[in-house]
Amino acid sequence: MTKPIIRSHLIAGGQYHDIDYARADLLRRLGASPHVRTTVSHSYADLTPLDTARLLVTYTCNVVPHADAVARLRAFVEGGGRWLALHGTNSILAQNERGRWYAPEDDTGFMDLIGSQFAAHPPIAPYRVSVRAPDDPLVAGLGDFDVEGGDELYYMRLFGEAEVLLDAAATGPARGFVERDWPHDGRHPVLYRKKVGAGEIVYFTLGHRRGHYDMEPLLSYYDTVEKGAWEIAPFNLILDRCIAWGLADG
């Protein structure tokens, strides 16, 4: 039986990450179904593809839309659209005069819409992710799992209500960040759902990826290759489920 075309839009762009790897991988997953057609951009400058899209996928860092684009994004989700936001989508990064990183306050409403804003992360090290909503289809059948390979545990400012599906415990101070100290007994969302009108946003903080040439203009060569959670089975299973959720009817 002929299936109707489903349209999705991918925004992949920004700094300090292997955006090319993420873009190619996400397009491969979206293209696994022949009736799915995906448009691609590196920013929020042109959101006309959302007029016909069912799913928006974002993998960005330091890419923030203007207020009018935020209004368009909100209208898309409120009207029933689905948005899968990955890793650094909620990140605005800057450095102070001492070279410490900080997250400037967002005045566009973007982070309020998403439900979180990256603030800092502890040194990259293995950490354990816990399942908090075992009956949710995105994580059903999964147990707690370890993240290795150089991914980041996000310390975030949270806005509004969301259903946390995965979280992780803080693992130490965020060295090199202005907001250095976080509660050592605190837990931080790794995967959550946020309903907005008739639609929904799913935010997945995993997915860090950085190669030797991804720190320009700060560094011309980065010594360490950080492959992140892309190398572990639970991440790939959840990511595939998230994309299937985003493309499904209703």
UniProtKB/TrEMBL annotation:
Alphabetical list of InterPro entries matching this protein: Class_I_gatase-like, ThuA-like
Source species, domain of life: Bacteria
SUPFAM superfamilies assigned: Class I glutamine amidotransferase-like
Domain spans labelled ThuA-like: 16-217
One protein family per Pfam: ThuA
Protein name: ThuA-like domain-containing protein
